[in-house]
Amino acid sequence: MNTTSVREMAKSKRRSDILQTARKLMLASADDGFSMRALAEAAGVSSATPYNLFGSKHEILKRLLADDLASYQKALSQLPSTGVELMFDAVGLMRQFLDGQPGFYRNIMREVNADPGSGMREVAGGPRYKLWRQMLKQATTDGYLVQGFDPDALTVTLTQMIAANVREWASGHLDLTEMEARIRYGMAMLLLALATEASREAVQQRWRTAEQDLQNCWRAALSKRLQQDDLDDDARAMLVNQLQYFQSLQSANAD
Amino acid sequence: MNTTSVREMAKSKRRSDILQTARKLMLASADDGFSMRALAEAAGVSSATPYNLFGSKHEILKRLLADDLASYQKALSQLPSTGVELMFDAVGLMRQFLDGQPGFYRNIMREVNADPGSGMREVAGGPRYKLWRQMLKQATTDGYLVQGFDPDALTVTLTQMIAANVREWASGHLDLTEMEARIRYGMAMLLLALATEASREAVQQRWRTAEQDLQNCWRAALSKRLQQDDLDDDARAMLVNQLQYFQSLQSANAD
DNA sequence: GTAAATACTAAAACGCGGTTTAATAAATTA
DNA sequence: TAATTTATTAAACCGCGTTTTAGTATTTAC
After folding, report:
1. With 0-12 CB in 10 A as exposed, 13-18 as middle and 19+ as buried, what is B186?
2. How far off is chain A from B246, nearest CA to CA, in Å?
3. A38 touches strand D (CB under 7 A)
4. Any bridge partners for residue A195, and if so which?
5. Distance (Å, rounded) from C-alpha B171 to C-alpha B31?
């Protein structure tokens, strides 16, 4: 029963070894994730050991996710900005986190929505919801958002929008840049109708910027496809057409 | 090579039998979906036959989904409403479809986001995107939305919001009523900033209504939990507190 | 300090998933 | 009718998360 006994020491060392190994494996292969067999082998234990120490694969992932959420929350609390700016900066911070360990987060996300009954949803969703709700309320009391809207309703919509974009990034349909632009765009869109005089211009500017960023993303993706793929003439003509459309938009924005 | 030969007839009969059986199985058990073994047994064929006739499980699901998308599209084109109203009616229509075969759609959704590389995404997302984009453009040319926003950017945000809510319904975290309310709320929020004089009041009304619907959903869920669960006193007190908050909101709305 | 009890590990197996293969039966063709 | 193509089937394959079985090492009790 002594926590410093030889047995307990070895146990907790194994525990952290396994967690570290799991993180390493996820970082290494963003697409495949890891199997419990691979984890056990890489950690130098048998397949049954992780089950004795953690119970299930989901439990391991939950631990890892909770750790990262805590450090995100801490980093967020140290941001200097306030009001609406803080919300946009929180998006940038999130992007930094995702960028730092892309394989890890992609795998985590995959597991979160693979099995909705695993409790991952609560681990991931609960704190995030509170975070955004608090930012919204703070922005309201600080006079950056009008009063008279239900903070819960907006928080639900906002967090869902963010989560959906992160999920799309995690499944490989979006690069980080476009993901961030989409989130900024959606957030600005949602806040536009609630902005006060103190923030309206800033939000509007954010919205315009995000819109242009999105167009740039799509333009870049288009010209990339135009170079790489071996297309038939019709498809090529269509891409060229779209590309010209985007370029005309850009020159219009420059005016 | 004759399509009316005995062999081809039997083949196409088997094909449609299997598709029908798959749909039936999905309707019957919304949570578990179906395994290929169960499908084969229920259809009276061996496990390998579906693979000969369709290639993979995903292909079967894609066929079924494509059928339903087509009938949704047809029903949508027969709606009498226009402009922004059409968009909200399209949400109602979607709800009707989901309500008609809940088990089916829940399983389909589960598969769509279980394996993002299966092509289901394209089947589901492509037509839907075009549909909403067209509605947005039509509403703009009809004068219900201001000009000067990128229709693609908004369509991306809008369809993603809708898809995220449907997905949450499919995974059992949302009933259909709340799903619809959330979608209407998010849609109204996004359109608020773009509404013209011709539509601003209507959109604003939609927004208020959706907000109240959401509050009603949450209030109902709260009082349900309050009745059913065996809670400790603290948790019960918290729920009661929230419930009173919602009731105060409702009386404020009635004013 | 030794013996009994306990806890932990590792190897193999379980059950289930989608999918593929080897052999058999059927329909087409000559 | 004989030869050949085609489609179905039963059985197996492979990988997954997880559980069981048996042995080993640590702790506890005397």
Report:
1. buried
2. 10
3. yes
4. A145
5. 8
CA A99 to C1' C17, whole Å: 33
CA distance B119 to A40: 33
Q: State how far the Cα of B12 lies from the Cα of A34, in Å rounded to an integer.
A: 41
**Interval B60-85: pLDDT, tens:** 999 999 999 999 999 999 999 999 99
Partners of residue B145 on adjacent β-strands: B195
What are the structure tokens assigned to A154, written together? Answer: 């907006």
Dump pLDDT digits (tens) for A61-116: 999 999 999 999 999 999 999 989 999 999 999 999 999 999 999 988 888 877 77
Residue B113 touches partner A, C-beta closer than 8 Å? yes
> According to the model, what pLDDT value does residue A6 have?
65
Among A182, A113, A26, residue whose Cα is nearest residue B112: A113
Q: How far apart are CA A132 and CA A156, in angstroms?
A: 9
How high is the pLDDT of residue A149?
93
Neighbours of B7 (CB within 10 A): 9
Q: Hey, which residues does B195 pair with through a beta bridge?
A: B145
Inter-chain residue contact A113 with B156, CB threshold 8 Å: no
- Please tell me what DSSP assigns to residue A195: B
Report which residue type is found at B143.
G
Separation in Å: C15 C1' and A55 CA: 19
Q: What is the mean pLDDT of residues A194-210?
A: 95
Distances in whole angstroms, Cα of residue B79 to Cα of each of A31, B72, B76, B91, B230: 43, 11, 5, 12, 47
Query: CA angle B159-B165-B168, nearest 5°?
Result: 140
**How far from A205 is each of A42, A178, A212, B45, B233, CA to CA, in Å?**
50, 18, 11, 61, 49
Q: In the structure, what pLDDT confidence band is assigned to residue B251 with cuts at 50, 70 and 90?
A: low
